[in-house]
Hints:
The chain is mostly helical. Among the domains are: 5-69, Transcription Factor, Ets-1 (DNA polymerase, domain 1), CATH 1.10.150; 252-394, Four Helix Bundle (Hemerythrin (Met), subunit A) (Up-down Bundle). It is built from 12 helices and no strands. It has helices at 11-20, 25-33, 38-43, 46-51, 57-69, 116-134, 138-181, 185-194, 196-294, 305-336, 345-353, 365-394. Helix 7 runs antiparallel to helix 9. The two termini are 34 Å apart.
Amino acid sequence: MTASPLESWSALEVTNLTATLKMPSEVAEQFRSNAISGRDLASLSDDDLTKELGLTSLQVRKVRRALTELGVATPDAPKAPAAPAVPPAAAPAVPPPAAAPAVGPPPRQAAPSFEPADLERYSSLTAQIAELQGMQISPKVAQAKQHVGTAQARLAAAQQAQAVAQAAAAKAQKRSSGLETGQGKASCLGKLLCGHSHHATKLEASPVQLAAAQKQLAETQASAGKGQAQLAEAQAQLAAWQGKASRGVATYSSGTQLLTGAAAKLEGALQSLRSSNFVNMAGMARGLRTTARTGVPRRGQPRRIGGDLVQMGMLRRANDSVSAAARDTEEARALLGPGLPRVDEGVLRAACTGLFLNVLANGGVMLDVVQAAAVRSSMNQVEGLLAQQLALALG
């Protein structure tokens, strides 16, 4: 559990808390005279606040509410005294020992329920999950925001205490100046009524009171400066974590766009392959009809150069689309790192270099069949890669 920031507070900061809660000066004096630090305050129970420091029940509730907002739990109540020991009962008569049972073979140890390889794989997965959880940024941002809020509350309390101390120091300075000059009707009247000795006593005590007020003011100013530095540091940490979160969102968005674009390119490649397969099958059917009509075998029939060029263009477009999709996938893997599921490395390498072998040539039915099989095989590979791409883009 994270330690409460209250435990690092000094006695002065705890005293300033009473001013923030608008408690009487007697309460602040009790905290100051007892040098109650933040760690001491966190350990005090409600009874301690009432009996030792003289707080009322309403004041105790205000202090407890402020401590709860600072993340300090109420201390456990003291445990009740232990019950007196009961004398042990008389031990019963010990029966005669029974005959020892026959010694048999030791029980067989149960075989483990899991294979060692499975246990090792489970340990590896657990370590990977812990690593991925450590990469989560949202909890860090929330923690930094909470730290900023705590620093702001401490700074506000210190600034309010500084204002009180500044007013007290100004009042002491004014009183001291008036006593030293001895001017004014009130001063003359005081001398007449109380005598010169009383005025001298007040004049002697005035520098001491002024020095105490100025010391209190200096301490509160130092506390406020420390609070401002802590707030600036907390805000810098929050800005750093928010920047890292923004960069993570941008990286994830870029990776997702690459995967979505790769899936679209694979869809286009499949469409080109389907069109090429249709053109090839239509050519085979036309050749078989010509053979049946004229008796000329498929090998001896003239090739349709226009159809071959169209089919070559379809295959080339499909090949380019798959290669581009593979490059986008590799770039997305470099961006997303361990958060991206596995892609078939063999298919990815083949896609980067081009999947299709152009077997268009002047031949018979056998070469037409080989060409159709090559296109069908390429379609199967692209469909497999597309399934993986869609899983990545939707995951």
